[in-house]
Design a protein that fits this description.
Length: 224
């Protein structure tokens, strides 16, 4: 198991961390896991280009292959650009960006943080008014530092989404409890559901956080 984990990490380090899903997997990490298991070919990553294919072939001891055209084509790096006049502030592109490189608020103007854009293109189909286009990246050199930063932002993106989901679940539990009391004609309100706000993603896992929420809800039910 340790050997496989090490191999996955080595493969993942060779991938561009654009998180574009063109390889057919939801993240570079998942593609690395598939390669380590021998379930995928080394020629499924267009952003990695020929250099990436050669690096994977060398690491895994496989023959060098041409990029699979089903996964895309090799092309110069581009970054997303939002037409400010056409943007309607729907925030769908913000949700689609895997590295949180788009900032803005609902019904407000959005903009792309150019140096953080990974060129994944996932924001394009998310935009309902086609106000996003791709332009040449002025800094075509996708350095190891930019790769690392993209991976860190991708991980932070998913942690944030997990926390948002758990907070939403907590609100639903609160609402369900309140509705139950109203329908049952409870005379006295129970204290609101509390979750330890001092706990951070580093201190508690999402599953433990949700378990804490459900345990407190169950305690309320037992007191009724």
């Amino acid at each position: 198991m340790t050997i496989r984990i090490d191999l996955v990490a080595q493969i993942d380090a060779l991938l561009p961390q654009t998180q574009c899903t063109r390889c057919g997997y939801p993240s570079c990490q998942k593609y690395a896991e598939s390669l380590a298991s021998g379930e995928s070919e080394i020629n499924q990553c267009p952003p990695g280009g020929t250099e990436g294919i050669v690096a994977l072939a060398t690491l895994l001891g496989r023959p060098v292959l041409e990029l699979n055209p089903a996964n895309g084509v090799i092309q110069p790096r581009k970054i997303a650009l939002i037409d400010e006049d056409a943007c309607i502030g729907c925030a769908l592109c913000i949700k689609a960006c895997p590295v949180d490189a788009i900032i803005g608020a609902n019904k407000m103007l959005h903009t792309v943080i150019a140096h953080e854009c990974s060129s994944c293109d996932l924001c394009l189909p998310a935009c309902p008014v086609d106000c996003i286009s791709l332009v040449d990246d002025p800094d075509l050199n996708w350095t190891s530092e930019r790769k690392l930063r993209a991976r860190e932002r991708f991980d932070a993106h998913h942690i944030r989404r997990d926390i948002e989901r758990l907070e939403r679940d907590a609100r639903l539990v609160q609402q369900a409890e309140l509705l139950k009391r109203v329908q049952g004609g409870a005379a006295q309100p129970e204290p609101s559901l509390e979750v330890n706000s001092n706990l951070t993603p580093a201190a508690i896992s999402p599953s433990d956080f949700l378990a804490q929420i459900m345990a407190k809800a169950q305690q309320k039910n037992n007191r009724e």
